[in-house]
Amino acid sequence: MTLEKAMEVALQVQGPLSCSRRGVFNEGNGLKIKPLLVGFFPLVRSGQLSTIKPLLAGVFPPVRSGQLSTIAMEVALQVQSPLSCSRKGVFNERNGLKIKPFLVWSLPPVRSGQLSSLNSWRKEFRSSGVSFRITAAADFSKRRQRKMSNARPRGSSPKGSTPKAPVGSSTQKRDLENNGEKEGSITPKSSERTEDNKQTLEIQVDEDEEQAIKHSEEKKVDEEKILEEVSLMSKMVAAAKSNQVVENGSISRVGKDTTLPEDRNAVEGSQNDGLENDGIVKEKSISIDERKTEDDSLQIKLKLEMDEKLRKQEIDRLAEEKLRKQEIEILAEENFSKGNKFFVYPQMVKPDEDIEVFLNRSLSTLSDEPDILVMGAFNDWSWKSFTFRLSKTHLNGDWWSCQVHVPKEAYKMDFVFFNGQDVYDNNDTKDFYILVEGGMDAFAFYDFLLEEKHRELEKLAKEQAEKERLAEEQRRREAEKAASEADRAQARAEIEKRRGTLQELMKKAASSFNNVWHIEPREFKGEDLIKLYYNKSSGPLAHANDLWIHGGHNNWKDGLSIVERLVSSDRKDGDWWYANVVVPDRAFILDWVFADGPPQSATVYDNNHRQDFHASVPNGIPGELYWVEEEHQIYRKLQEERRLREEAIRAKAEKTTRIKAETKERTLKRFLLSQKHIVYTEPLDVEAGSTVTVFYNPTNTILNGKPEVWFRGSFNCWTHRKGPLPPQKMLPANNGPHVKVTVKVPLDAYMMDFVFSEKEDGGIFDNREGMDYHIPVSGGIAKEPPMHIVHISVEMAPIAKVGGLGDVVTSLSRAVQDLNHSVDIILPKYDCLKVKDLHYQRSYSWGGTEIKVWFGKVEGLSVYFLEPQNGMFWAGCIYGCKNDGERFGFFCHAALEFLQQSGFHPEVNHHAQLSKPAFAAGWATVYDNDIIHCHDWSSAPVAWLFKDHYMHYGLSKSRVVFTIHNLEFGANFIGKAMAYSDKATTVSPTYSREISGNPLVASHLHKFHGILNGIDPDIWDPYNDTYIPVPYTSDNVIEGKRAAKDALQQRLGLKRADLPLVVLLGSAPDPRIQNDFVNLANHLHSSHHDRARLCLTYDEPLSHLIYAGADFILVPSIFEPCGLTQLTAMRYGSIAVVRKTGGLFDTVFDVDHDKERAKAQGLEPNGFNFDGADPAGVDYALNRAISAWYDGRDWFNSLCKKVMEQDWSWNKPALDYLELYHSARK
């Protein structure tokens, strides 16, 4: 009887296997068996089964004697742990291993007399020396052991395996044999011996191992993936099979409770049971499951297809490798023949790929070096640096190579070769480079860096905010600790003072006094009711009709705590009166006075000659606990007072900051809309990285009537890295005459710049009279580099102020500095200056005299004071000397010499921030002077002295801006400065038009601009003004102004009544006019002593009180270049009444006549104005103003609120000046 058995074991082994003495695989370390093992069994007759049972135990199911020829057992076990063989030949589970190959053992027919041959074969096969190709899976150690099925009943199939339906049919058997013949495998015959089986095994395994060695790591990965798929399919088939149990010729489905054994001992015990019943086999009948056969066939087909796929992949890989090798050899020969010392493969370098860099050492400066390394980076050395060691290649010649990964952001690879120390081959100092194709270009990479930088800045901003929060929290805790200690110390001091005072009082206190007062009973304590008697006839209350006691205790500690009315007593020894008084708890001393009435009504007192009356409480001597409690009570009170005070200060500071921010935001919006009739954007606030639409109305410009309008723009004051944008033809918009264009704003933009032209190639331009159009961009990565502005002036508020010039220099400088630019001021050191913390720096010589340089901070600004030792500024005044022209001319020349000698020039440290005096680190400190700003006739010589003597000697990159504050003084100097300056301004647009016809100005209108002055909102701030009684904002303007008006009337001796208060502020430069004012003052004081006052002196506190308390400020100037009076008045909610001239016309819009003019400026009407310089004009405006006060008080109050909310600070003028500075530097 023939036994033919094909046993296939699909074991995914995660550990190495070896064959034990029992012929079973044991575990090693994380390997996989790859070959196909095929063995052959000799013929066995039906009566010889007991002889081979030990070999088959645990593998084959029990069979009946007549059925061995039809048994084909297939075991597909997904083993999740290593396998070993027990004595009974069963696979045991260990640590998560998987056997990959299929193990197929075929048993040929065995006759009854051939069991000894089988035993011999078994011994030979066990020592046949089969070699295995074994690899490890990365996750074998992490996999959990798989549970086996429960123990079977005695006599059933061995644990750990399930009977399978036989493959059985002759057709299938022939197919398997034919497949084996096609692939060159040996088909076993019945006459073949065990030695043949051994030889077949060795040949098959050796061939597989040799083929596996040729595979690369990439091949292994692919193969493992495919085998995992096979394993998955095998699991599915095995799962389907395991659900069937064949017994007694029938098939039953195993339920969910049927599992494999979990215990190795249970498996061995089951096998021992089989051994004890040697020779007894329980016969079972097995039917063929067609679906199982189909699944087996599908599994075999999948394996064959996958094997074929692997084979083709390997062939393709080898072909590609061979082609690559050939191409590299050709490139090496070509480059060597041309004398090229390096090349790369592949020749077209693409991003996010690996390349190989080759260097011919013999052609390099490194020809004698044993070590070759490459050092480089990408994108002009700006991205991802690297260093790799090169290895000697197989190529003919001295070629060395290494692999480099090209990142996806690369557009260029830069590198040099070196020996790892100090010998380099850098391509004759030009470095080596390779262009990367198909990826980013330089601009795209820069945008990528900007985005990375933006994210980094956001992260840093969050981290910085958190650091600042923690630091502020730490400062707060330290401040609270210091404050608490101070409060405790103050409480202790207060207690010591009270203790001493109380002790002194207790010494003087008594229970009665000289027939004036006494207490009954004499012994009492706290909370007792006593009678306090007073002899009315003993003091100043002898004639009073009513008597009251006003009392307290413990030296009036809690103030007035006893108030009682006295009644007459029936005593006959005097005019005695008494009151029933409850002694306060914890009272040691009673304190009181007598009066003729209750508190708030009494007029006559008996206070013991201002010593008050005191009586000791006999049983109330204070103990130490009392003083401890008192000290703690005082400490709590101080703490609460401090908390309330700090909360008020903090709330006020926060409100001030909020008001300033809101005002600045409104002003910026007004600035952006100030030219809406010509140009504006949507959205109005331009954000970096966004797309913006620019609208332009050519009908209001020089391009009116042109058939086309072209947009020409750039960013960052025309300095953006990408240069000017290509000209774009503007398209008609939907809002009338406007045309529009869309512009993408880069992430590194902080300013948008543009002009308009009639043609693509130019023609007529609208460039805003040389200023260009500029719109600030917010949210960008790049910030505007700070300019350095130096003001050379003879005035500066508040230390050297005569007129508005000093205010402008200080306030403009502060406003520009707040916009993150660097500002310095150079000023003469007058001997009348009062400046704290002046520091002497050093001296320099010019004009035959020594000039000392002093440095100090004034209003947060860096100021350099020049003190010539020739005494020119030791005159005790600013103006008024006969040689003012000579004095200020010398100062201008000395200031420019200071700039040159001190190194204030742009050649070295461009856009440096001044964080310390120029001389702090010596004369070597170098700064920029982007702008030198000089003012009026007194510093006008700076313009021509700079151009004639300093422009070509160290200050060549500076530009001069000159401002006319008043053309009435020093006209010749002003005219010359206009000619030499790069840009010129005056203090209001209207005044610029008024003087544009002057010959000194007319020829320079192309560079002449009117920029309105502003006021300093920190100096003139009614909410934080210490000179007025009630701080106020627009929310409580009526309350604040009422209190200030009352204080002003009291201060000036005016009648305190609800009447309109009109103030005239001004100055008289002509002495004759000044005398007229003196005479007027005398007349007013004599005829209207309580209705009018004329103050002919400057008083800083009084000026603040006037601005706050006045209803109207009258400024009837004949001419006024700008005027700060009306601006300050509106800041305090006072209504300006002005003449239409200069800056007065630019800032005051009549409530009756200027609504459209105000609207064009983004404002609402805010005052009253008039034209004529005569009494009729003044009367016309004042009558309307006073009538509005009387007839519509609510309307007038709303007007006060409205003018307070208008921004007349330097917020907008500072932006205008920055545009002028940029234009001067362009």
UniProtKB/TrEMBL annotation:
<dbReference type="InterPro" id="IPR013534">
    <property type="entry name" value="Starch_synth_cat_dom"/>
</dbReference>
<keyword id="KW-0328">Glycosyltransferase</keyword>
<dbReference type="GO" id="GO:2001070">
    <property type="term" value="F:starch binding"/>
</dbReference>
<feature type="compositionally biased region" description="Basic and acidic residues">
    <location>
        <begin position="254"/>
        <end position="266"/>
    </location>
</feature>
<keyword id="KW-0750">Starch biosynthesis</keyword>
<feature type="compositionally biased region" description="Basic and acidic residues">
    <location>
        <begin position="172"/>
        <end position="199"/>
    </location>
</feature>
<feature type="domain" description="Carbohydrate binding module family 25">
    <location>
        <begin position="352"/>
        <end position="437"/>
    </location>
</feature>
<feature type="domain" description="Carbohydrate binding module family 25">
    <location>
        <begin position="689"/>
        <end position="778"/>
    </location>
</feature>
<feature type="region of interest" description="Disordered">
    <location>
        <begin position="254"/>
        <end position="281"/>
    </location>
</feature>
<dbReference type="Pfam" id="PF16760">
    <property type="entry name" value="CBM53"/>
</dbReference>
<protein>
    <recommendedName>
        <fullName>starch synthase</fullName>
        <ecNumber>2.4.1.21</ecNumber>
    </recommendedName>
</protein>
<feature type="region of interest" description="Disordered">
    <location>
        <begin position="141"/>
        <end position="220"/>
    </location>
</feature>
<feature type="region of interest" description="Disordered">
    <location>
        <begin position="468"/>
        <end position="489"/>
    </location>
</feature>
<dbReference type="GO" id="GO:0009011">
    <property type="term" value="F:alpha-1,4-glucan glucosyltransferase (ADP-glucose donor) activity"/>
</dbReference>
<dbReference type="InterPro" id="IPR005085">
    <property type="entry name" value="CBM25"/>
</dbReference>
<dbReference type="Pfam" id="PF08323">
    <property type="entry name" value="Glyco_transf_5"/>
</dbReference>
<comment type="pathway">
    <text>Glycan biosynthesis; starch biosynthesis.</text>
</comment>
<dbReference type="InterPro" id="IPR013783">
    <property type="entry name" value="Ig-like_fold"/>
</dbReference>
<dbReference type="GO" id="GO:0019252">
    <property type="term" value="P:starch biosynthetic process"/>
</dbReference>
<keyword id="KW-0808">Transferase</keyword>
<feature type="compositionally biased region" description="Basic and acidic residues">
    <location>
        <begin position="211"/>
        <end position="220"/>
    </location>
</feature>
<feature type="domain" description="Carbohydrate binding module family 25">
    <location>
        <begin position="527"/>
        <end position="618"/>
    </location>
</feature>
